[in-house]
cellulase (Pyrocystis lunula), 463 residues
Amino acid sequence: MEFARGSLTLLLLSSVAPPVASQQAGSLTPEAHPPLWSLDCTARGCWWERGSVVLDANWRWLQKDGKNCYKDGDWDPAVCSDPIQCAKNCAAEGADYAATYGISVNRWQDALTLKFVTQGEYGSNVGSRVYFMDSDETYKIFKLKNREFSLDVDVSKLPCGVNGAVYFVEMDKRGHWNGRSNTAGATYGTGYCDAQCPHDVKFIKGAANSKDWDPKTATGRYGACCAEMDIWEANSQSTAYTPHPCTQPGLTKCDGVTCGDADQRYDGICDKDGCDYNSYRLGDRDYYGPGPGFTVDTSKPFSVVTQFDGTDSGDLAEIKRFYVQGGQVVPNSESSILGRNSGNSVTDSLCAKQKTKFGDLDDFTRKGGLAEMGAALDRGMVLVLSLWDDAAVNMLWLDSAYPTDQPKTTPGVLRGPCPGGKQSTPEYLRSTYPDAQVEFSYIKVGTINSTLPYNRRLGGSYV
């Protein structure tokens, strides 16, 4: 993705604490992770494995003795006089996933639904972000080089300007739990990072990000950088998958030029632009959209399959994409805007051609390209599932014309059919489409060509 996910917020009445990250485990509200099963596959077949999801700590109530540690966009200096003391004082509380955050699983525990706007007892929640776990204390670490990841998606209720995202980031398995300034850990969704080096992460490696905190933007001095592989960023109108390599392993607490902020975007340690494969942007405007006139009909569910081709010991060479809908395998669209025989997958060669064609700086190659992305996949990454709107640029980078100061006829500017303007602003979307939602189901990982559409509800048969 191209911009930070800072627009994901919980809007509560003034008498209740806004959501924030914290590092101590609370005791006022029990934390119960919604169960979510996944499939592990080989050439011999697929087997169900029990897992669960946990809400990101940034959404949770942060309190000390029942009083807010963070209110009206700012820290309470009485309990957060310095970053470490703040982390030791404040506790994250458990979440009511369905009633407050609009997060639910179906009765078979193989499908996750994220709702856009949820009216709770104390106010409205907008969007959410959850992580996949393999125990109540640890995130599941996926190692995907020379493997395949797939899932079913239903984006039929996602309008322009909203993003139902599935991606991997190189988070710590325990959320940087250390038993001292962070006793919440993965159990309460701590430790987030991504390639945008977000500054809205309120605790980084056991310390509050309260230094130079700006209550207007809800950001602190430090950012949280790590490699990111965007499997699926999409609504019903447009989609992209994008590798974002970083030159440092794991979570880096960045400051200054290391973060690559503002006019130093390309001087940081992460490739913030990435190499995106967006079918619309690459020339096929009839490939993805709602209705039978599109190759992939987003008015109906379908499977998304991503293959990370390479070898167990060698570099990542290619990231392939195909879909399965109506029992038919659908190859990815061709990158026709780059010329004949340019391919339909992410390779170092395609990325270089795309950057040249669109007049973009090739930071992907500078940051190590697929080899560096493959190294992160080899080390292991955490699965993230989220639903969000974009207060920064209204999701124009995904589904409309961006940048806005260039003609739409400029190659690479049109990324989707959405009109942009007021209709893509968070204010308009939240009032017009509060019932928007996305469903993710049948999460599968395995050897290349081992994951097929699998329906547990039909007795465990392949369909």
About this structure: Helices lie at 83-89, 97-101, 348-358, 363-366, 369-379, 396-399, 426-432. The chain is about 10% helix and 30% strand. The longest strand covers residues 437-447.
